[in-house]
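Here is one chain, start to finish.
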Amino acid sequence: MENVIIIGGGPAGLAASIYNARAGLKPLVIAGSPPGGQLILTSEVENYPGFESIMGQELIDKMRKHALKFGVRFIDENVIKVDFSKRPFKIYLPNNEARHRVFSSTSPPKGGSPKSLTQKQVSSLLFSKSVIIATGAKAIWLGLESEQRLRGKGVSACA
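Its structure:
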């Protein structure tokens, strides 16, 4: 039984995980696959506070490392179904593997940088007292023939 499961491994989910970990709730982030959300598809990020310019993947990596420092655990899978009809809430992962890997840091929760990652296995059905949904956004493209070819070269889905 989890205290908190956070669905989404982008900036909002990672920020929520850090706050929950600092409160002693031992959050589990189901980050999606690939983890990091839309930000990992972004080349240069120039509008994130504290970073004049940083690559999207690098920013997500820094956020995950920060979360690991506080003991946040990760499953890099997609959620396929939820049941919020009664407590505890049920979170379903794909059945393509009988068990899924949970990544966590071996360093103390309030220690320095994560030294290494440990893995353990969990089943495809998880139970949690609370769930935070931070699934983020997805770019909506026009479908023009040239837009994917010109992506990052003046064509963007950033508003």
